[in-house]
Amino acid sequence: MISKYTNGVEIKSTRKGIGLSRMNKGRKTTFEERIEIAQYTIANDLDYQKSMEKYDVSYSQVYAWVRKYKSGGEEALKDNRGRNKPAEELDDHERLKLRIKELEARNEYLEMENALAKKLAEIRRRHTR
Fold first, then answer.
1. pLDDT, tens digit, 9 for 90 and up, residues 20-36
2. What is the 3-state secondary structure of the chain?
3. 0.90 exceeded by the pTM?
């Protein structure tokens, strides 16, 4: 590319970047909207640009939703952030991992409580002398 430029050869522009590309924050979408957008995009031969314009969402979101929809169906488009499974839905391995996590948190709390009690005892001992 540089050698063409330095030799005086005319460089033609590429088609990259010609399409509409929005780097906006986007908007909140419902579960039903994500399903509709994914189905619309698939029905229109994966025309992400058309979906972006019609639904006012970013390319990366449309692409991600279509990919998730193809691999996991409608359930894959659910937003599960911040939600844990109820205890009755966990299998044995997950239940044990959760129990270990709870015990580690309790252990950390008790260690801090113990360190605080030792420090308090040391301070009281200094003041009684």
1. 555 556 678 898 999 99
2. CHHHHHCCCCCCCCCCCCCCCCCCCCCCCCHHHHHHHHHHHHHCCCCHHHHHHHHCCCHHHHHHHHHHHHHHCHHHHCCCCCCCCCHHHCCHHHHHHHHHHHHHHHHHHHHHHHHHHHHHHHHHHHHHC
3. no
